[in-house]
Write a structure and sequence with these properties.
The protein has 7 helices and 2 strands; from the N terminus they run ααββααααα. With 177 residues, it is mainly alpha-helical. Strand 1 and strand 2 form a beta hairpin. The structure holds flavin-adenine dinucleotide.
Length: 177
């Protein structure tokens, strides 16, 4: 998002990261970590917000009773849970790969794609469910959550770039044998 200009930068040989000519590997390893871990905190926040949303909708009622009795409401909550659970499992798998020393860049891209899209979807769903209260930040500021999570769709590579990584992995696994 900005221009980096390197002008007469002399770096001592002792400052080399990895081995000379292995820069791509250093970058790929950093991306594997970043795409795996970057959004984990947002996932936790989304899970917390989902819980607050359930409580708020339970307590909010019309003349017939709690909002939660409407399936249009409860099913949206259930879908939020499913999206977050799936994203969490994919993040765990990507982190497990790092722990095991597996350079599985596609698993990291899959986790990043799934988590970034799940947290945006959940912020959007939460806002629709709480409507005016969500806009006003009561009990969750979903308008702010939406703005916060949206950047996750681009940071560490856009969704299209994650799909490119996954596509290359898919093709190398099935076409290049
Ligand atoms: C909140 C936030 C935090 C960030 N933090 C950092 C940071 O800490 N460090 C850092 O270095 N950068 C950071 N970034 C920058 C981020 O990595 C870039 O914005 C991102 O990689 C996209 O690059 P770009 O903005 O240049 O978009 P472009 O590369 O110009 O892409 C424009 C559009 O073209 C599409 N596109 C580009 N190439 C392809 C392709 N091959 N196939 C299909 N579609 C393609 C993209 O998906 C996008 O829709 C951050 C961005 C955000 C939003």
């Amino acid at each position: 998002m900005g221009i980096v200009k390197l002008d007469r930068c002399r770096i001592p040989a002792t400052a080399v990261l990895g081995r000379p000519r292995a820069g791509l590997k250093v970058f790929a390893t950093a991306m594997q970590w970043e795409r795996t871990c970057l959004l984990a905190g947002f996932l936790g926040a989304a899970e917390r917000d989902l819980g607050l949303c359930v409580r708020k909708l339970h307590d909010r009622s019309d003349r017939e009773g709690s909002m939660l009795r409407h399936q249009a409401v409860s099913h949206r909550l259930a879908r939020m849970q499913v999206k977050l659970d799936g994203a969490r499992l994919l993040a765990h798998r990507a982190a497990w790969n790092i722990d095991q020393g597996h350079a599985d860049y596609a698993a990291a891209a899959t986790a990043k794609l799934a988590v970034s899209e799940a947290i945006v979807d959940c912020a959007q769903d939460g806002l629709r469910l709480l409507a005016g209260a969500g806009w006003c930040g009561e009990p969750v500021d979903f308008a702010k959550a939406l703005a916060d999570t949206y950047g996750g769709l681009f940071a560490s590579g856009t969704s299209e770039i994650q799909l490119e990584v996954i596509t290359r992995h898919l093709q190398s696994g099935h076409l290049e044998k």
